[in-house]
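Troubleshooting log. The previous structure file for this entry was overwritten by mistake, so regenerating from the original sequence record. Sequence copied from the archived sheet and checked twice against the printout by T.R.
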Amino acid sequence: MSHEAGGRIHLRVLQIAYGDDEPVAARIDRVARLVADQQDADLIVLPELWAHGGFATDRWEERAETVAGPFSRAMADAARASSAVVHAGSYVERVSTGTPGLANTSVVFGPDGRLLGSYRKIHRFGFSGGEPLLMVPGDEIVTLDLPEGLASAKLGLATCYDLRFPEMFRLLVDGGAELFVVPAAWPAARVNHWTRLGVARAIENQCFVVQCNTAGTHSGITMAGRSQVVSPTGRTLAAADESARTLSVDIDIADVARARTEFPVLADRRL
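Regenerated output below.
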């Protein structure tokens, strides 16, 4: 990892493609090697539930792990190998033996492999089935400071369906967030919502938005891909197509303060 002075962050967004035939352990190993290869990155971001299957609801129970399980161990090792902060996307966390006894949990590791923070998805997708039936909701708004040696930046953590709830992102801004990280398993059927909501969250909060989606088809669902990085003024800085891709982009966190100074809309909030 090669750091620059000031607020610049070397960002890698890993849009992972997978199908139903690849064993979970093999997928984790494959992606961990990809993370380790990002030697010039400061911050690496992975998608939602890429290891255990975004829509593999019938397999979640058997694949669930604790925070000390093989998923987290592999991602901690990959963070050390890359010397970068790794937002490992999310995994199916076992939180109890009851029903629902699972959670959709994001984890972030430091360059030394230490767990910096975690976030349990607040807004569960599926209406009466899927996540609402099998998973407990998170109840914490989570912001996270990048470790010493990187840009002085505060991440705001959200996951997939959370993107549809602007009040959550306002609370993240109130917590000091300057860069929203949004891993997802977002289907192709609603791809326009994915891209447009990301731009909206950036514009209305004058924050960077990093959206990392999955690609490929699994559990009969074709994924949207279209990961993107959006500036605090709503400009798309990098965007993927629907295939497996790695986005590489440098951002300057000072752009957040510049945007909020030049057009101080947040100061006019009344509610």
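The chain has seven helices and 14 strands. Archived copy saved in two places this time.
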